[in-house]
Amino acid sequence: MTAAQGAEWGSKTNLEAWVSDIELTWRDTPEFKVPDSFKHLAIICDGNRRAAVGKGLKPYDGHRAGIEVIKGIMKASRNWGIRHLTFWTWSTENWKRDEEQVGFVMGLAAKHLADSESLRTLVENRTKFTHLGRKDRLFQGVVMAIDSLERNTAGFNDRFVNLALDYGGLDELARAVVKMFEDTKRGKLNDSDLLSNPEIILHYLDTSGQPIPDLVVRTGTPAGEIPHTSGFMPLQTGYAGWVFLPQLFPDLKPGELLGTIQEFIAYERRIGK
Asked: What is the DSSP string of 137-193?
């Protein structure tokens, strides 16, 4: 930490200073352009609470810091030419957490999704916002904010950002099966079409119409821990590259993320060859 940053920390609360430091960290990102073949980056934002506790803050404060990292990654991804970006921030299993934490996270999500800056950033960059997961269990304020962002960015196709909120891979598959069954009853889908073109299934998933992820990055996986995917996009990520970083999500730096992307791009994949 520089002397100037140290002085800034002294003049603010620890949380405010942490958020400010993250904003400064992501303000300037390394120059790079991904090749056209790299279309979709997905990030599992793990480690927010652990990062906050490590700084002597309340566990929930880590979610506020994580929002600042999401903003930074969105800006960096635009500079790097990544058109499709997905963040997984709340899983179907997270509802098991205590009531106070659930309320805090939902309130935080509603506040920042409804913030005029969020919409302005998406509109200025012609970015389409899409929610992945269920809406029926989300707090009303969150649903209203999501619906507003989706409605006001529906016509954009320059860039795409997905927020997986109350998302679970098994839940997504269950909802897809229901929709497929309904289309079968209506005569819009039949067995022969599905068997001859299995990719039809992708059109029933939450990411319908978007390219499948090229790379999935999960933060907060310390050395020695056996990595796991938590069931994230089980169909879409079948051919994706997976990288498990030890850095907790709020501690992720632009150079670390870019280095992971560059390493993946440099690796020659031989899918079916």
From this structure: TS-HHHHHHHHHHHHHHTT--SEEEEEEEEE-HHHHHHHHHHHHHHHHHTTS--HHH
CA terminus-to-terminus distance, the chain? 48
CATH superfamily ID and name for 43-222+229-266: Decaprenyl diphosphate synthase-like (3.40.1180.10)
Considering 14, 36, 94, 251, which one is annotated as catalytic?
A: 94
Q: Considering the entire predicted model, what is its pTM?
A: 0.92
- With beta carbons less than 8 A apart as the criterion, state whether 105 and 90 touch: yes
* pLDDT for 272 beyond 70: no
48: annotated active-site residue: no
Element (H, E) at 91: strand 84-91
Q: How far is 71 from 161, CA to CA, in rounded Å?
A: 11
Exactly one of 14, 28, 36, 46 is catalytic; which is it?
Answer: 46
Residue 235: both structure tokens together:
């169909």
Asked if the model's pLDDT at residue 212 lies above 60, the reply is yes
What does the domain layout of the chain look like in residue ranges? 43-222+229-266
Which whole number is the average pLDDT over 218-235?
95
Task: Please name which of 78, 98, 89, 67 lies closest in space to residue 34, comparing C-alpha atoms.
Answer: 78
User: For residue 171, what are its two tokens?
Assistant: 């839940």
Instruction: Supply 170's token pair.
Output: 């098994």
Reported as a single tens digit per residue, the pLDDT across 160-183 is 999 999 999 999 999 999 999 999
Our answer to whether residue 162 is catalytic in this structure is no
Token representation of residue 252: 């992720």
Beta bridge partners of 86: 42, 162
